Fold these 4 entries.
Entry 1:
Amino acid sequence: MTGQFETTFEIDRPVEDVFAYLADGRNDPQFSPRVLGIERVPDTPTAVGTVFRSTVKDAGMKTGREIRVTALQAPVKLRWAEVSKNLVTAREGGYDLEPLADGRTRVRFHNTLEGHGVGKLLVGLALSAARKDAEGFGSRIKAAAETAIAAR
């Protein structure tokens, strides 16, 4: 079983700055409390093929995650796929950014979750939790980005 969740929100910062912030996955702990630590491999600017290795805590369990950037079109599109082997993975996900006339940015975040093995029984629960928190997740990204990116 697979399923998608998404959220759309606006950030009061220019699209180029928001893209740079989101493309550096090392910022994820600022808005995702489940991310306990993360590194970028190689430690160079994010590009197609860059991998973000993280330790996350889901449902009380720590797991290792590896997310590979699969597409990048600055400043409007970022895509990824999880390459780690876990019970539930993000088969594909991404950010779509749209510049707004007043120097703000509309962001659409989406992830498609997929269960593997016993995870096929758990993916429904993971999707339900992710969908329930989608609006809150968008709000946390907005707050973190507006704090991290200086206003112009």
Note: The mean pLDDT is 96.
Entry 2:
Amino acid sequence: MTGARVLSLNTLVRLQRGLRAVEPHRAGPPRRLPVPDGMTTPMGCDAVAVPARFGPLVLPRLPRVGCVYADEAHWWWLVPSDSDYAMEWPAPAHYATGAVLPDAPAVPGLIHRPDGTLPYTPPIPLYLALCRLTGTAPTWSRRVSA
């Protein structure tokens, strides 16, 4: 079995996500949230969208806020890549791998830029804030049925 390459489940998931990120969502090129100049993304970059009405309710619940973008319909929060691993983001939130905006007519405007060089909002506090606002139990606290 020389030369055989074993792929882990994490590798397969990343490959699948990569394929989804390049699939055309519509006729034009996919729109991606830009990382502001001077900021770095050492952990990659995904995004979580929430309806605009939730945006102002989420902000005060977070210990640190990264880059936030907004348009009339949604607020978008930059998070490290794979922040959906083992978490089901509560509806009506939408998780966007690669910070690619499906069906967005234009790239939303940046409404918050943090100090420093990292654009990330910590995903677990964001997840918990969204669970609380939507009345959804976090994935890890739900009952497991046999």
Note: Confidence is low (pLDDT under 50) at residues 20-26.
Entry 3:
Amino acid sequence: MTSNPVTRVLVLNGPNLGRLGSREPEVYGSGNLADLEALLVASVPAGVEIDLRQTNDEAELIDWLHEAVDSASPVVMNPAAFTHYSYGLRDAAALVTKAGLPLIEVHITNPHTRENFRHDSVISGVATGVIAGFGFDSYRLAVDHILRSAL
């Protein structure tokens, strides 16, 4: 874990999460990314930046993980569909944790209550921890853990 005060948390989101609010609201809820960002910003103390990003591009997500290592930024990441097959993303996530930085894998839903293909994560084995099934609170719990661990 990081021993320096946390001033920025990267909150990274993978494919199709830019459609939150309109994509299957019965599964993912009615909140969008702006709502998620507002929730997270309101939950952190002054001086902590929530840097929330979303991409449908695997390479861009990998580049953001490299940036996390280079800037010593902890990561909360919802890899979305990349969770289940992206070994390139797994390798980049491993760089984060091997650098001594926390990387918390989050999911809005509980993947284990859904289709079988969603049960396996190639990211979990290199993540600091996994929080799933609590809607947007999965993210808030992950950020809270990162901030408490840095004390």
Note: The longest helix spans residues 58-71.
Entry 4:
Amino acid sequence: MRAMPKEGDLAQEAEVVWLESTEGLDYVRQALDKVNTRKGRPRYERDGRLVGYANLVPTAPRRPDSGLFVRRTFYLLPHDRPNQPDDPECPYKVGSPLEAVDPRTIEPGKAGAKAPRSQATAEMVPAVS
């Protein structure tokens, strides 16, 4: 649906569920997806892997335009830096995708944020010999 949540998009979130540890991840991508359920693992139809998702409160309304619920998902694509930390050809060796946020900044009802670790600068990247 949309990569970056706007104010109010996350008001119905009850919890964030991580499917794996995010401790070693510089960033995760976040997206707002339209799904049939308020909670539980949503269907994932992107390349890469689903890392986490948000569950909604039991009273969260359906979208009037689609009849679906809007929930956040957190994922990584195969070419993302957390999947290829030592690959000098990784397209995000420096910086990160637009929708990438530091997973340590994610909370229910609060959009994640970019942080120094999610933005890796040239000074942070080890030289390849």
Note: The longest strand covers residues 28-35.
